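::Encoded backbone::
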Amino acid sequence: MIIILNRLVVSGRFRTNCYLFGDESTKEVGIIDPGIDSNDVKSVIKREGYKPVYLIGTHAHHDHIQCAIDIMDYFNIPLLINNFGIKKVENVHFIKQNDVIEIGREHLHVIETPGHTTNDIMLIDYKNKLIFTGDTLLRGRIPRQLINYNNLMASIRKILYYPKISDEFKIYPGHGGHSTIGKERLRY
């Protein structure tokens, strides 16, 4: 089985990483952290013939989900996000610890990792050994903005030593380049 993993550095001053993750056999993808400008995301999806099924936010900061409504409307897909204090809104579904998001034959497991915000999540693909870490775990550094340093460090240690996660798992953060769990364990 071959996965779709496409990283886009979305336009704008924050240079947020958006990921298209999915199942190559069905062309179904989840759009993870679309950023502030939907044009690049729409262009790649159309060019590659992908079929978006979900928009997924690792947290609710504007540099990660500002264009969410545009993408949700354009592709007629729901937003999956950890509840960040809003009431239920049409086409927004709240996800939480231990939920599993199915995209074709691929699966992303939700883990809550507060600290950068109170409602951060990471998405783990055990089969392909990769983790979308949002802004909780960046390559070689902690995020500049955080709600609670102690919670952030606990969340970082939680993912670095989470059951079934080994050194070779690749991390795909919300900003900057990718890394591995093994490299990040050396930093903490």
In short: Residues 55 and 79 are 5 Å apart (CA to CA). The chain has a mean pLDDT of 90.
